[in-house]
Amino acid sequence: MNPGQHLSAADAPLGSAGLGQPDCPPEAEALRGRIRAFVRERVMPCEPVLDAGGDAARTALRGLQAEAKREGLWALPLPEEYGGQGLGLPLYAHIAEAEGASDHGPAALGSAPLLDVQMLARHADDTVRKSFLRRITGGEVRTCYAMTEPETPGTDPGLTATRAESDIAGGWVLHGRKWFISGAGEADLITVLARVDDEGPGTDSLSLFLVPASAPGFTVVRELPVLGAGGQWEIAFDGVAVPPEHAVGAPGQALRIAGERLVLGRVLRCLRWLGQAERAFDLMCLRARSRGQSAGPLADRQLVQQMVFDSLLAIRTTRPLVHEAAARLAAGEDARLETGLAKVAAARMLQQVADAAIQVHGAAGLGPDTALPGLFRTGRTARLLDGPDELHITAVARRVLRGYSVTSRTDPPGR
Predict the structure, then answer these.
(1) Residue 225, phi then psi, degrees to nearest 5
(2) What is the mean pLDDT of residues 196-209?
């Protein structure tokens, strides 16, 4: 790797893509600038080490987390009662783009466990909350969420095969296998979706259980590279004993609880994808301006200008959809339609912008000297994460079409 080239990518100035951001409240503006600087100056230069995993990555991440804590940037959106800074979604949405410009930004800044902390704070037993929540927020305990299974469609949780058998002590014994679980190889606690007492297909018997990675019978089966990169894992549960207090929520309520975290999770992903797309856009523009040919710089080529225009248009038209979904969710309103639109648009947008940036870089965009391969990989993966495009397209279309009646000639409702 050429260190200078990588640092240029990290230090790239915020280009015109950022000018399409909604007005940021004054109380978040300075904080957003500090987060952007931290991610670009501290996190991005460490990406090669963090991407490689292992002891060196763990050491580097701990160092970044310690810096974030010293600078008062740690756990911004997590609840204050558990050691976070309690920044609500209306303000955090303006910061999440800058934080997510690197895949490692949320972990380095302590916001990565937000979904797990909120879920456990609302639905876990008091013993679990007292034992784990402050430690999760502080970065001492790492978590992951295990729902997807081999040979079972992730879009149809009613076919979940992992089962939890009740025991005479009031607890549970888990059997099953999960895969494509983010961070499972490093996790201390795993929230597992399972079918209670091996009942037949359906969702009424699905429940959630909190499993320590140290529990006998829990196994990390293998790491699953995604387009050549690690971070996803296959795990197995072979007679793992779960005490009664480690059930999360009431029996049969797993999908309702999962739905709460999925909507917020999708919005957070979209915000972070915007930050990554903006990063790819900056790299593309820098390359176009700096790369010369015998006939002049790439920036003078109309086809390159077309890619710059199309990428900027994709970012600018996606950002309002994402922030509208965040605003509705923060206001406690039904945001399913807006979230579906935002999720599909943001995933497509990141893939498009990263692809254009690679095209402008030529062969250099395929190699290890820029962040572009990782950004493109994230963009392609985004179209499957938290539900594939097709799931959101059909769900949004059905919701819209229900507002139209074939027997009425009056104007249809707006929603």
Answers:
(1) -60, 135
(2) 77
Over residues 13-39, the pLDDT tens digits come to 555 566 567 777 888 888 999 999 999
* Cβ-proximal residues to 226 (8 Å cutoff; 6+ apart), any chain: 180, 232, 377, 381
Q: Locate 295 and state its tokens.
A: 């006939």
How far apart, in whole angstroms, are the C-alpha atoms of residue 381 and residue 347? 8
The answer to whether 82 and 140 have CB atoms below 8 angstroms apart is no
CA 228 to chain centre: 19
Write out pLDDT tens, residues 230-247.
889 999 999 999 999 999
Three-state SS sequence of 318-379: HHHHHHHHHHHHHCCCCCHHHHHHHHHHHHHHHHHHHHHHHHHHHHHHHCCCCCHHHHHHHH
Q: What is the pLDDT of residues 348-365, one digit of tens each?
A: 999 999 999 999 999 999
